[in-house]
Specification:
It is a single chain. The protein has 299 residues and is α/β, with parallel strands linked by helices. It is 36% helix and 18% strand. The protein contains nine helices and eight strands. The chain has an eight-stranded mixed beta sheet, sandwiched between helices. It starts with 11 loop residues before the first strand and ends in a 7-residue tail after the last helix.
């Protein structure tokens, strides 16, 4: 671990993934990061299979010859800060079309991690820049009706979060093979199993336009495949069929279109027939911890 900032505070680095097609939004995000109070936030922009647009002086860039997916691109950004990101104390992961509307977000992160040595990950509140509305799906807990209520949670939002570099060093990087969907929950479960906690903080905000996840062409297939991989990698054997059975039932209740359902079942089958990476089932005490936090790993 490197030395803290000049005032003794934690060093913060930001990883931003871009496909090179939103240069104006990326520049606005970088400007909002540069305006953060306290020691400057070090920034790495990863061009995921695309050239990186012009960025301000001092911003590091990495251009990948192919799209490695969201977790793969973020892992490259992590390594740009040293092995497991350990050249900084805190890693921010920010969507390239997001914006930090407040200048104290980095300082709030520093204070939160300093005050709670068990805290490993913080999930920010995502709000639409025009309406201020936070979509229910962006509150990472079952009781999501009040997005202004901060709490302990069991997962986090991939494009708006802060992670201690120690968590990456202990729990491992994001699962690059997932490409898109559920990679945050995979890391969250491993972090919880290693003894870390996760907070959702409503006062740490990322502005991001309201979108539907299904805008991604691969959404239904990836969601289903990676859900199976998530269970196979992380759950005790007894819970795997329960967890996947519940999610299949919920999918059917939501009545997706015929095409979406076909893609979902194709992904579900793929999840069983393809390698999912190393299996490291969580301890039963972690299952109990998840349950006490309001989301047992069967829902």
């Amino acid at each position: 671990m490197t030395a803290p900032g000049a005032d003794g505070s934690a060093k913060v680095g930001a990883v931003i993934i871009t496909m090179g097609n939103r240069p104006d939004e990326l520049r606005a995000l970088l400007d909002s990061v540069a305006k953060q109070d306290g020691d400057p936030v070090e920034v790495v922009v990863v061009g995921n299979g695309a050239p990186v647009p012009d960025v301000p002086d001092g911003v590091r860039t990495v251009e990948l010859p192919e799209n490695l997916g969201i977790p793969g691109g973020r892992n490259v950004g992590i390594e740009a800060f040293g092995p497991a990101g350990t050249d900084v104390d805190i890693l921010l992961f920010l969507d390239d079309d997001g914006l930090l509307p407040r200048t104290d977000t980095a300082e709030l992160c520093r204070a939160a991690f300093a005050a709670d040595q068990e805290l490993g990950i913080i999930s920010f509140r995502i709000a639409d820049p025009d309406t201020g509305v936070t979509q229910r799906r962006h509150v990472p807990r079952l009781r999501a009706s009040d997005p202004m209520h901060s709490s302990r949670v069991t997962t986090f939002l991939g494009g708006a979060n802060a992670v201690r570099s120690k968590v990456i060093a202990e729990a491992g990087p994001l699962p690059g093979e997932f490409f898109y969907a559920h990679e945050e929950t995979d890391l969250a479960w491993r972090a919880l199993d290693a003894g870390w906690m996760i907070d959702y903080r409503s006062d740490m905000v990322l502005h991001h336009p309201t979108t539907a996840p299904s805008r991604h062409a691969v959404y239904h297939r990836m969601v289903a495949r990676n859900r199976v991989w998530l269970a196979r990698r992380n759950l005790p054997a007894l819970l795997v069929p329960v967890y996947l059975g519940v999610w299949m039932l919920l999918t059917l209740v939501r009545r997706p279109s015929g095409a979406a359902l076909k893609a979902w079942f194709g992904g579900f089958k793929e999840g069983w027939t393809t390698p999912c990476g190393p299996r490291r089932p969580m301890k039963w005490r972690t299952v109990w911890r998840l349950t006490r936090l309001g989301r047992p790993p069967v829902i």
